[in-house]
Task: structure prediction
Amino acid sequence: MAKIPYKWYKILAVLLLGYTLIYGLLIPLPTDVGMLDETIRNLFYHVPMWFGMMIILMAAWIYSILYLQNQNPKHEIIARALTFTGILMGLCGLFTGMFWGYNTWGSPWTNDPKLNGVAVGMTMYAGYWLIQKSVDDGEKKARLASVYNIFIFPLFIALIFVMPKLAKFSIHPGSGESVNFKTYNKTNNMEMVFYPAIIGWTLFFVWIAEIRARYEILKQRKENEELFA
Amino acid sequence: MFIHIFIAVLITYLSLPGLDKALYSSLFWLIVIFTTIQGISKSFINLNKGHFLYWHQLLSPIQFLVAKLLTNALLMLVFTVFSMLIFTIIHGVMVDDTLSFLLIAIVTGGGISSVFTISSSIAAKTNHPGMLLPVLTFPLVVPLLLIGVKASKKATDGLGFMTSLPEVIILLIMNVLIVVLGVLLVKFIWKE
Result:
């Protein structure tokens, strides 16, 4: 179950990422982007991280629900692997965003609702990690962590989707009153790279999560064998 | 607890004598949540395994959770009203629209107290409840708190209740969501 029985998605991930990396550097840019200039190419790295993080955390949420429903320890392991990968993706998105912000806004951290929302969201998921660390009993740990995961995901969504919508000003494009990237893209075909980049990065991180889940399952199987040997 | 609130407000008065309206609602909420987390978390952390077993024989988990939610919401309400009273006595009248401020405070406080209840019931089951509780709890109330602070700032400026209606509706939706999630999940937290 934890091993996804298809090889093609790994090949697809590599192909799409190769395409993104190479063609993302070659693609001619729209000329009217102003101070964004060449940094707009970060669109292919920064934004897919957030899309992928949402998809992966959503999958983790679903697996946590599945775990509580049928008590299959494998589901919990998959949920855990997915959640940690989601956190990793969030951190990657945060760092690429900080580079981008440093070069366009002048500082890596600004008082923007999206940044603050994500910072708080990451501390929520740090709580998930702490629960894993501070309970000894395996089954209880799995149960509490799943409950916590199910509980925080809606709040996390509220933080990063509802809060920026409520805030009137944001210097992120596409939220509040600032300009949207769509206005730039009219003249160009950046979407040709953007959408493959989202799929490619997401598949790539799913791959990481799959390896992690398989490793954890094997580890647990070995422990069980030693226990009953 | 009441002395706690009184001292906290007194400190804000001594350090910031000329408090303006912009700061008022943020300070107010800070004091209220730090007091409430003390009150609510105590009621969980001081319960040991024996207490849990005892309650388990008497009640179903959902009954226990609903009772806790109601008690804590009431507690939060009392704290909120009391700190408003103290704030008014010490700092003078800051809120232009007391009624809608109170209404917003009730809605936000209800949400915050239910998040506190559920997350402290999770934390109480771990090995280091006292250490884990703030880490698990504070990030979770941030979305509620930010919306609440924003809405109550409008009330302190006397903009009228209708301007903060969208925030109140979002808060109500989130409260319902939190309580429903809590009721659905409590039997998994509860099991030993």
